[in-house]
Amino acid sequence: MDDIDRNIINTLQAGFPICDAPYFQVAESLNISETELLARLKALLAKGFLTRFGPLYNAEQMGGALTLAAIKVPAERFEEVTDIINAFPEVAHNYARSHELNMWFVLATETPAQQQQTISAIEGQTGLAVYNMPKLKEYFVNLKLEA
Amino acid sequence: MDATDRRIMHATQAGLPLTPEPYQTLAGQLNLSTAEVMRRLMAMQDSGIIRRIGAVPNHYKLGYRFNGMTVWDVPDGQIDELGRQVGQLPFVSHCYHRPRHLPEWPYNLFAMVHGKTQAEADRQIRQIADVLGNQCHGNEVLYSTKILKKTGFRSR
């Protein structure tokens, strides 16, 4: 990753235009060609520097439901339980964390009822209790990180 | 959000096409006009259904190896004021009020911090502790040790 890549990451975290040739517009502001921007963007995604590029949908605004949930996974079952949980398309993120509650995942469902169904299904398939921690209030969200 | 918006959402869940005219590519896939796709994306952005169109970085790959979910036990009566103050700290990426699960999980205020070094993360955590002062009755930091999945919102 070089300075141009860093510039691309920082610029594209802030937003992206909706116009006929948006990559061209962004490329111009970065002083590179559209072809180079597209090639670098593909490489940043392929190499995993970026996990995603596109519209970031707010599940709650769509009438959906979002929650953070945690479970205590016995060490010897960690891989098995990871596979079970990751197989649910409702699981948007899943992180291993250093705690007795060692697996934390975000569930995004189209309806609140589906959230409860998904939690029940995860509890059924894993045999583990899910600690549901839906946000009661959001004070701040800004996903930007300087590259 | 109507059925056409939903089709646009499904078509872009994995990402925006990496073609010179991505909205036209999308329109072709969906049998819509390019103008309609752009108009609908703008409307969804204005109404907050789309937070933004943009890139989501992998923290680790950018050198942020110390990604801590800091959790704090603060009085429910003060949490909104304290949450706003913590959320204003420049390094906090997310800050939420979440329910306790007593007795084993007494924490109700969550704030995510990201450091390239342990010392940087420690400094950030100390600054949060300073904001909370003696209103904090306990805290922990849960570092992420591995990203097991990160796909963003997908629907079935």
Q: Topology of this structure?
A:
The complex is a heterodimer of chains A (147) and B (156).
Chain A lengths: L2 H12 L7 H9 L3 H13 L3 E8 L7 E7 L6 H9 L4 E7 L5 E7 L2 H15 L4 E3 L3 E5 L6
Antiparallel strand pairs in A: 2-4, 2-5, 3-4
Chain B lengths: L2 H10 L9 H9 L3 H14 L2 E8 L8 E7 L6 H9 L6 E4 L11 E7 L2 H15 L6 E12 L6
Antiparallel strand pairs in B: 2-4, 2-5, 3-4
Explain this structure to me?
- The complex is a heterodimer of chains A (147) and B (156).
- By secondary structure, chain A is α+β, with helices and mostly antiparallel strands.
- Chain A has 2 domains: 3-46, no CATH class; 59-133, Alpha-Beta Plaits (2-Layer Sandwich).
- Chain A contains 5 helices and 6 strands.
- Chain A has helices at residues 3-14, 22-30, 34-46, 78-86, 112-126; strands spanning 50-57, 65-71, 91-97, 103-109, 131-133, 137-141.
- Chain A has a 4-stranded antiparallel β-sheet.
- In chain A, α2 crosses α3 (34-46).
- The radius of gyration of chain A is 19 Å and the shape is elongated.
- With 156 residues, chain B is an alpha+beta fold.
- Chain B folds into 2 domains: 3-47; 60-143, Lrp/AsnC effector binding domain/regulation of amino acid metabolism (RAM) domain (Alpha-Beta Plaits), CATH 3.30.70.
- Chain B is 37% helix and 24% strand.
- Chain B is built from 5 helices and 5 strands.
- Chain B has helices at residues 3-12, 22-30, 34-47, 79-87, 118-132; strands at residues 50-57, 66-72, 94-97, 109-115, 139-150.
- A 4-stranded antiparallel β-sheet of chain B has the order 3-4-2-5.
- In chain B, α2 crosses α3.
- The radius of gyration of chain B is 20 Å and the shape is elongated.
- Chain B starts with a helix and ends in a 6-residue tail after the last strand.
- The model of chain B has no long low-confidence stretch (mean pLDDT 93).
- Chains A and B meet through α1, α2, α3, β1 and α4 of A and α2, α3, β1, α4 and β3 of B.
